[in-house]
Amino acid sequence: MASENMQTLHVELGDRRYPIFIGSDLNPQTLLEPYIKGKQVMIVTNTTIEKLYLQHYVDAVSALGKTVATCVLDDGEKYKDIEHLNLIFDALLEAGFNRDCTVLALGGGVIGDMAGFASACFQRGVYFIQVPTTLLSQVDSSVGGKTGINHPLGKNMIGAFKQPQVVLADMSQLKTLPPRELSAGLAEVIKYALLGDADFLVWLEQNMDGLIAGDATLLAEAVYRSCAHKARIVANDEKEQGERALLNLGHTFGHAIESYLGYGVWLHGEAVATGMVMAADLSCRMGWISDEDLQRTKKIIQRANLPVACPAIPLDEFLAYMSHDKKVLNGQLRLILMKKMGQAVITKDFDVEFMKQAILANQLSA
Amino acid sequence: MASENMQTLHVELGDRRYPIFIGSDLNPQTLLEPYIKGKQVMIVTNTTIEKLYLQHYVDAVSALGKTVATCVLDDGEKYKDIEHLNLIFDALLEAGFNRDCTVLALGGGVIGDMAGFASACFQRGVYFIQVPTTLLSQVDSSVGGKTGINHPLGKNMIGAFKQPQVVLADMSQLKTLPPRELSAGLAEVIKYALLGDADFLVWLEQNMDGLIAGDATLLAEAVYRSCAHKARIVANDEKEQGERALLNLGHTFGHAIESYLGYGVWLHGEAVATGMVMAADLSCRMGWISDEDLQRTKKIIQRANLPVACPAIPLDEFLAYMSHDKKVLNGQLRLILMKKMGQAVITKDFDVEFMKQAILANQLSA
């Protein structure tokens, strides 16, 4: 039985078109049934989500007559590595699963990335279903098909493009999400407003208090609008040849912060938040947005309880980490900057000195 | 400067169409130039090929003005694992390579599978070029896009479909190939005759002595005809939903032999050779081919200096290894068998007792 208030968004990717169901108290048995092709389902989750929701999904999938196995990984970005990926392969092979099986990711972005990548590689590709349990993964990982793992020399350096059969985004599961992680998810929501939708930015300014308080109806609306933006961009540019790079607003700076601090010290959304401030600051120095726009950007980020400055990081190290980022093409750094509020561009035409100033201006004193 | 006798075969895969250049003393600088897109080339090879041909390719690619880095792996199927795959990622990241780089596989099937899989996953996909240096990899791995690594519980269980930009198959490099490996390559050549081309079988019967002696013109013709067969099948069925499974003639039995003996004890082609005998034997017991056809199959395999029987393997273990093979769909074993000489079929309609007899009849006494 579908929730009364459930919204459905279709990601248009030709023969890999799939739906995202967004609502509260969704019924996984009914919603997943048409999308599980074979008889075997491997549910991949982490030790935190295992205690909260694993049995609910094991029961739902078992009730469909499927063989269910589970793989529970350690919880955290620092485990998004090749060794933990291999544990999923071990579980699939020990369960005797075949080319017709489904891997279901039950968790946040780390679980989605790892389970998705495993589903892309196991037997050269099996089916994949996503049940994102954090706001960040609901708005970010459930559209786009990017999966992968980290390497000691860089984030998400190893991976695949893999589209799911279906995504369930259940707002009820956000009740158990720590406030810090809810804020981290809001960073990506704000990103969609800043990069392409000035009206959405106004909506966020009107509703930020309710979002922070966990209002399920407001959160569902924020997830729907964010996913709709991403779905439109991804449909135009699935393999990130062009427009899709806009989604990396704040990410090149953010990756440098995350890499320097060590994966998992700051949440991804927190690093992206400060990264967006740096991008806005550079855009302001370039004369593309006003100082008022920069302050407005900082304000909405602060109201989401997100950091607008990072710890002091030596500039040379910050720049070295930025150049390891994937958004580097043939050694020429391209950044996502703001031409105006609600309109980002991909550009290498910026002043490098201004970039350094923007980085230093948004660090805490050492 | 292209060799006078060079033949070119195009693998028709729409926007992923690519050429295979087949000949002797090919000029890599001229032939590769149009197919290297970015500025960085990682040549992946093994310790054996490193001594013979690495410098030649480093020089050729450097002469094109590219940045060249190398990654030399241990030589052997037993190293086709996740740890050695990770060494390629280490090399790519330590060299600071970006999304626009090319991974060039210089070696046999193991190097092609690992370098190809690494190119599919590094930064979610970079460019890939193949220079297969064994007969087996020239006829088998250079068409089809199957890449991957082994897992302790099964061969090629983790991988991706990844098409190269171009393949260079140089017969001159077969002069340094050990005779046992030349024979292993001929197993796959014979496979194409048995599964789909009775005329090619006659040609092989006429020319087997010259092939075994390493005649470059005959070898080039055998590679061309084998690749043409495979290219036609793959173009029809890239992701192995149907017809492509025919290419696995002998492989389900062969995988069981390889798995039981331990990877690398028998060469892949040797296991496939005996596997094809078992498939022919079962086809004969089913009444589809005559006893004369079975003897003819064994004869051409023996003339290629390949084994027609494997060591004694307990039947239950043999069957357990067969069922780990990927050709198992929802627990129902499908085999590639011969409906007549030069015509294979994918079927689960065979007598299981006959299958057991065919396995046992082609084992050496314990």
UniProtKB/TrEMBL annotation, chains A, B:
NAD(+) binds at residues 75-80, 109-113, 133-134, 146, 155. Zn(2+) binds at residues 188, 251, 268. Pathway: Metabolic intermediate biosynthesis; chorismate biosynthesis; chorismate from D-erythrose 4-phosphate and phosphoenolpyruvate: step 2/7. HAMAP family: DHQ_synthase. Its cofactor is Co(2+); Zn(2+); NAD(+). It comes from the Bacteria. Catalyzes the conversion of 3-deoxy-D-arabino-heptulosonate 7-phosphate (DAHP) to dehydroquinate (DHQ). GO terms for molecular function: 3-dehydroquinate synthase activity; metal ion binding; nucleotide binding. It catalyses: 7-phospho-2-dehydro-3-deoxy-D-arabino-heptonate = 3-dehydroquinate + phosphate. This is 3-dehydroquinate synthase. The lineage of its organism: Bacteria, Pseudomonadati, Pseudomonadota, Gammaproteobacteria, Moraxellales. It comes from Acinetobacter gerneri DSM 14967 = CIP 107464 = MTCC 9824. One of its GO terms (biological process) is aromatic amino acid family biosynthetic process. Residues 185-328 form the 3-dehydroquinate synthase C-terminal domain.
